[in-house]
Amino acid sequence: MDTARSLTPTTATFIPKDSNSLEQIGALEGVERPDGLAARILVAGRDMVLIEVHKAKGNVDQRHTHDDHESIALLLSGRMEIEIDGESFVANAGDSWIHYPGVPHSSVALEDSVHLEIKSPPRKTWV
C-alpha cells in the first residue's frame, strides 16, 4: 500500500461544510490537470472517505484506473459523460455510478458539475 495516498481518519464526529477548504487539483493519479477541477474532503473514516468534487464544463478526466480502492459517486448538479470499462453513460443530477479497483474509467463535464464520491479504502489520488 502507498501510505502517501492513505488518509488519516477525521477525529470529529460532526464536520460543518466550511471546515474543509476546496482544493484545486494540479495532478490526478500523477497526470497533470488543467484548471477546472477541485475537491474537498468532507470526512474520512477508517474504511472510507467522502469527497465533494467540482468540475468546470469541458473538464476531462483521461482514462485511468485505481488499483487500491473502489469509488461510488452521486452527481449533485450538472451533467457528465462517464465511461466505465468501455461503457458510456450521460449522468444527470441524481444519477450515480461505481467503478471497482482496476477498472478503467474516464469522464467529461458537459456542464459545470458537482458530485460526491466515496472511496474505500480512503485514498487521496490528487495533489
From TrEMBL:
Residues 56-112 form the Cupin type-2 domain. SUPFAM superfamilies: RmlC-like cupins. This is Cupin domain-containing protein.
